[in-house]
Amino acid sequence: MGIWLNAVSFNIIIKMWLEKGDWELARQVFDEIIEREIEPTVVTYNCQIGFLCKKGDVEGAKSLFQDMVRKGKKPNAVSYALLMEGLSSLGKYKEAKKLMFDMEYQGCKTAEAYRMLVDMQIASCNPNAATYRMVVDGFCKTGEFEEGLKVLNAMLISGHFSHVETIRCMILGLLDKGKIEDVCFVLEEMEKRKKRFDFESWEAIVKDACSNSIVVYRLVDELVF
């Protein structure tokens, strides 16, 4: 009596070989899935994409990603996150950022961006500074400043910090929402890391804060001390 294996069973076997670092055997199992006409899942692709990105074979990972799309499988936030991380690690930031916009266009909501960073950390694929910055920037551009702040917190925990321009955008958005304490927290973190706004940035922030005297006093305190 033969043993019938489904896609989930094959995924476990593929992951096992990848954890052992044996790409050839993992690929043989994947080829067997295709030969048996068993439909691979997104997980089948993701574990291979993640492995190739860690090994620096981003072109191979991109090829698998494209193959998944061609076969009608919709990449999830983890698929995009793994490939974005791989591209960022090679300094291909523009291509990684383009992929993030494609993620949103394909229906992966921006709220999934924060979740994908968590998924990457769980998978021991720690996002680098560029990946975090792209996600923060994406939230700021869509007006989801509080979500951007969550990612900024994750950045700080991992030892990274965002670009000053992105921080300026976030602060202005938080001010508009009346999130005074959050603004002060970001300013304090900037001070700790010796990050400074130029005069134009401070001018924009102070003008935006003028409708709230408490904010003005706190900002003046930051400027003076």
From TrEMBL:
GO cellular component: cytoplasm
Biological process per Gene Ontology, one example term: mRNA processing
Residue spans of the PPR repeats: 6-40, 41-75, 76-110, 128-162
InterPro entries to which the protein is assigned, alphabetical: PPR-containing_protein, PPR_rpt, TPR-like_helical_dom_sf
GO molecular function: mRNA binding
SUPFAM superfamilies tied to this protein: HCP-like (SSF81901)
Family per record: Belongs to the PPR family. P subfamily.
Name recorded for this polypeptide: Pentatricopeptide repeat-containing protein At1g07740, mitochondrial-like
Gene from which the chain derives: LOC107769775
